[in-house]
Amino acid sequence: MEIERKFAVNILPGNLEQYECKKIEQGYLCHNPILRIRKSNDIFYLTYKSKKGIEKREGKSAIVNHEVELPLTEEAYYDLKQKTDGNMVCKTRYLIPLESGLTVELDIFEGRLKGLVFAEVEFPNVLDADNFTPPSWLGKDISTDRRFSNHYLSQLENPPVI
């Protein structure tokens, strides 16, 4: 189960070089359910995401998905990459620890989405997601704004404005 919230970024949190980072490239084979391939540094994955069986949460902003990640070989990744639906999404993800034990995943997009920056926080449960108070450097909650789903972004030629 994946439980996350997405936020605009008011200001970058200091020197990003101090944080672990990942170079991510991902593309989509299917939208409903989501079938995604991802290269994270030199690790390759196939991810299946579905909302099937997830209770609707009116008025709440956390994104809740069933998620299964499977390892891929480099060869399989590049073979599937040719079959992706739309453009690849490329970004650098910085992993910024919070005092609460949670981690902010700060995504700085590259290529045709250059200039787009937002952050995600994953939670162990829905209650923690609902009660989360973001640090001051995070801005507006954009969790329910479909313009910031990575699948939607893969279809764009230019980044959306937050």
Number of contiguous helices = 3
**Helix/strand order, N-terminal first:** EEEEEHEEEHEH
This entry's quaternary arrangement is: single chain
What is the radius of gyration?
15 Å
Outline: globular
Key descriptive features of the protein:
162 residues; Hypothetical Protein Pfu-838710-001; eight-stranded antiparallel β-barrel; 9 strands; globular; mainly beta
What does this structure look like?
Strand 6 and strand 7 (103-109) form a beta hairpin. The protein is mainly β and 162 residues long. The chain has helices at residues 74-81, 126-131, 150-153; strands spanning 2-9, 20-30, 34-40, 43-50, 63-71, 89-97, 103-109, 117-122, 138-141. It has 3 helices and 9 strands; from the N terminus they run E-E-E-E-E-H-E-E-E-H-E-H. Strands 1-5-4-3-2-6-7-8 form an 8-stranded antiparallel beta barrel. It is globular. The model has no long low-confidence stretch (mean pLDDT 93). The protein has a single domain (2-153), classed as Beta Barrel (Hypothetical Protein Pfu-838710-001), CATH 2.40.320.10.
